[in-house]
């Protein structure tokens, strides 16, 4: 880097000297401007004039050069204006600074004597910034949300100035979320980025969800970082991204049918229209027994007798069988004479 700078400096000095030589060659031929208001050379060559000797007639330029920060400040006027009245082209000394695609230097460097001062200019539009800041330009163009309505210089009122978000938004989330850039990219304010695996960032806004799920019932999901399942804000991965289903025919909709609460997957709650085939993987025995039996029960879905997982309705619950007390005992004693509910014994005689 330093080596490159030195190289550039030498190139510039050599170009400068060449220009001086060329220009002094010109001095001999024509000197139109000098006739109108030549500086008092007092016998010295024009090249030897100090900047202070131009100030009487060109005060604004002298001020700008002297006060302008940056590397033009220490240069002599005559280094660039090699002849009185000669106006150099920036490219004479900076032939390739930004590559071939950037032109009209004055639109970003409006003052040649203070070239690092404000590069903004009211006629600058965002495409001017693109050549050097592609990610920001494309970010705001493609997913800037409401920010895409702004030109860059609406926020960056001066080159390099970083506006605090709170200038326009205040503290939208209260005192807990201060470092806006922690979660928001200003050029894609809606696609919110969090630090990896830092659950505390989420707790600030979702504490009630966490209390109602992870804290209420601690399952192994509570030990996984939020962003493992929510890789982007408000985006949720599917169960099948991490787990095989209980059989290959199962789809994501099936998972939700039984595992309703992603944060407490051990709570099994299936809907009343669940078909018996989803039980078969874990309960092949009753499924097959019923399927092969010739009792009326085989036409009944499992969930009618087991409306919640691991519960068993007795025969007289759910409005199924209301019998005279003389017929038999209470609901549970029925199996004594009728066999299993999955495989009614038809051989009994009255
Ligand atoms: C006669 C030669 C010459 C001309 C013409 C010239 N410059 Fe420079 N410029 C220099 C030198 C020498 C430096 C010192 C930096 C270096 O070593 O590369 C410099 C530095 C700069 C810098 C860097 C300032 C900093 O502080 O980092 C900018 C920006 C710049 N010039 C812009 C321009 C623009 C824009 C123009 C046209 C309006 C221009 N220059 C015309 C010689 C010139
Ligand atoms: C780094 C090179 C450089 C230095 C040093 C420099 N100038 Fe310039 N000056 C320029 C350039 C480039 C222009 C604009 C050329 C154009 O507009 O095409 C310019 C323009 C001018 C103009 C025309 C009016 C204007 O502002 O555009 C005057 C007058 C002038 N300079 C005087 C001075 C004086 C006096 C000094 C010393 C105090 C000085 N310059 C130092 C590069 C320089
Ligand atoms: C006695 C007054 C006087 C002094 C001292 C003087 N100039 Fe000039 N300069 C003029 C006049 C008059 C013009 C032509 C009118 C104009 O364009 O402003 C001019 C024109 C210029 C221009 C071209 C301006 C343009 O717009 O084309 C430059 C560059 C310039 N001078 C640089 C210098 C530099 C550098 C010095 C010091 C070394 C200097 N002048 C000293 C009076 C002066
Ligand atoms: C679209 C705006 C824009 C245009 C047009 C532009 N520049 Fe720049 N230029 C910049 C910015 C912004 C910087 C400052 C980058 C930084 O902070 O280091 C810069 C920096 C520079 C530097 C200093 C580079 C360094 O490495 O320190 C030079 C020299 C320069 N410009 C010359 C030119 C010249 C010559 C032209 C015309 C051919 C030009 N610029 C056109 C925006 C522009
Ligand atoms: C110059 C003013 C300004 C600055 C600075 C600013 N914003 Fe905005 N932002 C707005 C305006 C105006 C809107 C439109 C919605 C509104 O009125 O609140 C907006 C909208 C948003 C939105 C909603 C996006 C959408 O499409 O719905 C978010 C999120 C946002 N800003 C975050 C930020 C963050 C974070 C920062 C700092 C990195 C920031 N803003 C800096 C002015 C600003
Ligand atoms: C709504 C206001 C707003 C707009 C519009 C905006 N920016 Fe920014 N930009 C910011 C804020 C705020 C930061 C500082 C973020 C921080 O503190 O890290 C920033 C940072 C940057 C940075 C520093 C690097 C980075 O990404 O943090 C660059 C470069 C930048 N902006 C370029 C641009 C460009 C180019 C455009 C136009 C295409 C633009 N910005 C439009 C608000 C804005
Ligand atoms: C010619 C190239 C160039 C152009 C054109 C340019 N910039 Fe830059 N910009 C730079 C460079 C180089 C830096 C310094 C980067 C750094 O410090 O990492 C910079 C820095 C910045 C920063 C501060 C980054 C930081 O991290 O602090 C902002 C903001 C910025 N530019 C915005 C803009 C905007 C807005 C425009 C258009 C109006 C623009 N730039 C045009 C080259 C350019
Ligand atoms: C810990 C992460 C985090 C921090 C820090 C943070 N935000 Fe947000 N912000 C979010 C999330 C997540 C949303 C999205 C909420 C939603 O979808 O409505 C959001 C939404 C917004 C919105 C849009 C709100 C709306 O009502 O449409 C704005 C504006 C905003 N943030 C600005 C800021 C500002 C300004 C700061 C800094 C003072 C900041 N944010 C700090 C995470 C954060
Ligand atoms: C194992 C995967 C997984 C992990 C880890 C996980 N979630 Fe979720 N989350 C889900 C699923 C699946 C849903 C959608 C189904 C639901 O509503 O339960 C969801 C829904 C949510 C919702 C919206 C539901 C509501 O009740 O408002 C929020 C907010 C949420 N998660 C935040 C978090 C936070 C914060 C963490 C970390 C503390 C976290 N999640 C960890 C899978 C996960
Ligand atoms: C990002 C990956 C991921 C996603 C998405 C995910 N899980 Fe998990 N799940 C895990 C990990 C890791 C474990 C712990 C397994 C272990 O320790 O062997 C786990 C454990 C479980 C357990 C056992 C819990 C316990 O405490 O015994 C169940 C049940 C479960 N997941 C169901 C689901 C369901 C249903 C979904 C969709 C709503 C889902 N998972 C989404 C990664 C995930
Ligand atoms: C018919 C209801 C039902 C459906 C549909 C269902 N599950 Fe389950 N799942 C259960 C039951 C019941 C358990 C508890 C088994 C145990 O305790 O051994 C369980 C346990 C799990 C476990 C933890 C034990 C293990 O096998 O590692 C994971 C992971 C799981 N299910 C993932 C899924 C996924 C993924 C889907 C969707 C493709 C799904 N489940 C569909 C009822 C179901
Ligand atoms: C007509 C009501 C009814 C239907 C339909 C039914 N069950 Fe049952 N199930 C019972 C009763 C009553 C018990 C208690 C023991 C018994 O009677 O065999 C039971 C017991 C069970 C048990 C406990 C262990 C065992 O095998 O005895 C499992 C597991 C079970 N059922 C699963 C299923 C599955 C799976 C289906 C669907 C394929 C199903 N049941 C259909 C009534 C039913
Ligand atoms: C992922 C496997 C899995 C699926 C799918 C599943 N179960 Fe279970 N089921 C179990 C496990 C494990 C038990 C715990 C008792 C055991 O060890 O048999 C159980 C227990 C039961 C019990 C209570 C058994 C008793 O002995 O008390 C019934 C009834 C039951 N399941 C019915 C169903 C029904 C109906 C379905 C379909 C809607 C179903 N199960 C789906 C794994 C599963
Ligand atoms: C002491 C033995 C015994 C007990 C206990 C018993 N049953 Fe029966 N049940 C019978 C006999 C015998 C029949 C007539 C044979 C047949 O129709 O298959 C019968 C017939 C039935 C029928 C067919 C009636 C009809 O209208 O066709 C139903 C339904 C029935 N029992 C339900 C139950 C229920 C529910 C219970 C428990 C509350 C129960 N039984 C307890 C012996 C018993």
Biggest pleated sheet: 2 strands, antiparallel
Residue-averaged pLDDT: 83
Distance between the termini: 103 Å
Structural class: mainly alpha
Number of strands: 2
Strand residues, percent: under 5%
> Which ions, cofactors or small ligands are bound in this entry?
heme C
Helix content: 25-40%
How many alpha or pi helices? 16
What would the principal axes of the Cα set say about the shape? rod-shaped
- The radius of gyration over CA amounts to 41 Å
SSE string, helix = H, strand = E?
A: HHHHHHHHHHHHHHHHEE
| Poorly predicted tracts of residues | 20-37
Widest beta sheet: strand line-up: 1-2
Structural overview:
The structure is a single chain. The protein contains 16 helices and 2 strands. By secondary structure, the protein is mainly alpha-helical. Among the domains are: 2-22 and 45-100, no CATH class; 200-258, no CATH class; 276-344, no CATH class. It has a two-stranded antiparallel sheet with strand order 1-2. A hairpin with a 2-residue loop joins strand 1 (339-340) and strand 2 (343-344). The protein starts with a helix and ends in a 6-residue tail after the last strand. The model is unreliable at 20-37 (pLDDT under 50). The structure holds heme C (HEC) (14 copies). One heme C binds next to helix 11 and helix 12.
Give the gist of this structure:
By secondary structure, the protein is an all-alpha fold. The protein has helices at residues 2-29, 32-36, 59-67, 77-80, 90-93, 127-130, 134-143, 152-155, 166-169, 200-215, 226-229, 239-242, 252-258, 284-292, 302-305, 335-338; strands at 339-340, 343-344. It is built from 16 helices and two strands.
């Amino acid at each position: 880097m330093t080596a490159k700078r030195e190289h550039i400096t030498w190139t510039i000095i050599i170009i400068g000297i060449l220009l001086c030589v060329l220009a002094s060659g010109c001095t001999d031929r024509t000197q139109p401007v000098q006739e109108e208001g030549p500086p008092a050379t007092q016998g010295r060559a024009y090249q030897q004039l100090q900047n202070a000797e131009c100030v009487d007639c060109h005060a604004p330029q002298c001020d700008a050069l002297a006060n302008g920060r940056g590397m033009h400040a220490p240069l002599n006027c005559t280094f660039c204006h090699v002849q009185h009245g000669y106006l150099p082209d920036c490219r004479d000394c900076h032939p390739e600074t930004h590559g071939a695609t950037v032109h009209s230097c004055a639109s970003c460097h409006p003052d040649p004597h203070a070239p690092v001062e404000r590069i903004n200019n009211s006629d600058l539009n965002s495409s001017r910034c693109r050549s050097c800041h592609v990610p920001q330009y494309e970010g705001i163009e493609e997913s800037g949300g409401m920010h895409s309505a702004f030109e860059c210089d609406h926020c960056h009122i001066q080159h390099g100035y970083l506006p605090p978000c709170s200038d326009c938004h205040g503290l939208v989330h209260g005192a807990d979320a201060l470092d806006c850039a922690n979660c928001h990219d200003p050029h894609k304010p809606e696609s919110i980025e969090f630090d990896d695996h830092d659950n505390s960032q989420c707790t600030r806004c979702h504490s009630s969800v966490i209390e109602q799920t992870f804290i209420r019932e601690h399952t192994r999901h509570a030990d996984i970082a939020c962003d493992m399942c929510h890789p982007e804000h408000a985006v949720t991965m599917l169960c099948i991204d991490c787990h095989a289903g209980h059989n290959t025919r199962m789809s994501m909709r099936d998972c939700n049918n039984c595992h309703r609460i992603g944060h407490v997957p051990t709570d099994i709650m299936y809907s009343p229209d669940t078909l018996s085939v989803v039980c078969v993987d874990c309960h092949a025995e009753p499924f097959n027994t019923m399927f092969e039996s010739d009792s009326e029960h085989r036409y009944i879905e499992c969930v009618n007798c087991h409306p919640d997982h691991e519960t068993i309705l007795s025969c007289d619950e759910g409005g199924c069988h209301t019998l005279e007390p003389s017929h038999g005992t209470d609901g549970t004693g029925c199996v004594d004479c009728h066999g299993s509910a999955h495989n009614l014994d038809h051989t009994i005689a009255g």
